[in-house]
Structure formats: structure tokens, C-alpha cells
């Protein structure tokens, strides 16, 4: 039995048929909508590589059933840059060398944008690190990531 869901993805209304109601939002984005900027790391909610904004809030897309997102607005990394013009958080990540291999970077950036919108961490580096702790960087670029988030929210 297929299921039809409506999503707004990066400002574009999408109607998607789900053949399998168990498909995750992550797999829907990557495999059906070809938005591969959102990465799959652990696929079990532990690394944050799949972070997107769902109705403006940070979520792990690997933990969300696409069917449960019916009617929601999803924002992915692909929505940020306007041609060559980067989003301020993207620019801050470059300015602070906040990545090495880059695999976790889309998730880090989407998490940072969600954090800034939440306005919870302020200018305290410890609180920023805590608020970003759901996003793992195997290269250990945490100092640059924290500096980038602090600059971007200033
Ligand atoms: Fe979703 Fe790791 S892929 S948290």
C-alpha cells in the first residue's frame, strides 16, 4: 500500500508517494529527491551527519519516518548558498577551518543554524559545544566549529 505525503523541501512543495511506510526522511531526501548533501553516517541517531531542519528545528533525519513528516517544511544544506554567495554560517566554517574531511559538515552547519535560531547558547563556548554535541566530527575540528558558530551568531 503506498502512501502520499506533502512536504515543503527547501521552499518547494513536493508530493511524494511512499511505497514503503518505513522509509526514513534521510533516505527520502537522498534517494528519492536526490538531495545528497545530507549525509548518512551511523543511520541510528548517534552522529548528526543527517541533521536537517524540520519546521525550523534540528532533527536527525535518519530517525524520522518520512510518513511522520507529512505537511512539514524541511530545510537541507542545499538551500543555503545562493549561487556563489554563501550563507553566513558556511562562510564562518570556511573562515575558521571548521572541517577537515568535510563529511560531517552539512550536518554541523544545519545544526549550527538551528542552534542560532534557538538562541540558546549565547556567546559561551562551553554552551555552544554542549549544544553542538550531537554532531560528531571524526577529524576533531571542534575548536574551529565552535569558533565558527560563535562568529556566525554574533
Ligand atoms: Fe543520522 Fe548518524 S546518520 S545521526
Automatic annotation (TrEMBL):
PROSITE patterns linked to this entry: 2FE2S_FER_1, 2FE2S_FER_2
Cited Pfam families: Fer2, Fer2_2
Residue ranges of domain 2Fe-2S ferredoxin-type in the record: 3-80
Tagged with keyword NADP: no
InterPro entries in the cross-refs: 2Fe-2S-bd (IPR002888), 2Fe-2S-bd_dom_sf (IPR036884), 2Fe-2S_ferredoxin-like_sf (IPR036010), 2Fe-2S_ferredoxin-type (IPR001041), 2Fe2S_fd_BS (IPR006058), Aldehyde_Oxdr_Iron-Sulfur (IPR052914), Beta-grasp_dom_sf (IPR012675)
GO molecular function: 2 iron, 2 sulfur cluster binding; metal ion binding; oxidoreductase activity, acting on the aldehyde or oxo group of donors
Entry keyword Iron-sulfur: yes
Keywords: 2Fe-2S, Iron, Iron-sulfur, Metal-binding, Oxidoreductase
Record-linked Gene3D superfamilies: 3.10.20.30, [2Fe-2S]-binding domain
Cross-referenced SUPFAM superfamilies: 2Fe-2S ferredoxin-like, CO dehydrogenase ISP C-domain like
Name of this protein: (2Fe-2S)-binding protein
Organism whose genome encodes this protein: Teichococcus wenyumeiae
Lineage: Bacteria, Pseudomonadati, Pseudomonadota, Alphaproteobacteria, Acetobacterales
Amino acid at each position: 500500500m503506498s502512501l502520499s505525503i506533502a512536504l515543503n523541501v527547501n521552499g518547494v512543495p513536493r508530493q511524494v508517494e511512499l511505497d514503503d511506510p518505513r522509509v526514513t526522511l534521510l533516505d527520502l531526501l537522498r534517494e528519492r529527491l536526490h538531495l545528497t548533501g545530507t549525509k548518512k553516517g551511523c543511520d541510528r541517531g548517534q552522529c548528526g551527519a543527517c541533521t536537517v531542519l524540520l519546521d525550523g528545528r534540528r532533527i536527525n533525519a535518519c530517525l524520522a519516518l518520512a510518513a511522520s513528516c507529512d505537511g512539514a517544511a524541511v530545510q537541507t544544506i542545499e538551500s543555503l548558498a545562493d549561487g556563489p554567495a554563501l550563507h553566513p554560517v558556511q562562510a564562518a566554517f570556511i573562515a575558521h577551518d571548521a572541517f577537515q574531511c568535510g563529511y560531517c559538515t552539512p550536518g554541523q552547519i544545519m545544526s549550527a543554524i538551528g542552534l542560532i535560531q534557538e538562541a540558546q547558547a549565547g556567546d559561551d563556548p562551553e554552551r555552544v559545544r554542549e549544544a553542538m554535541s550531537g554532531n560528531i566530527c571524526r577529524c576533531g575540528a571542534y575548536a574551529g566549529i565552535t569558533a565558527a558558530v560563535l562568529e556566525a551568531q554574533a
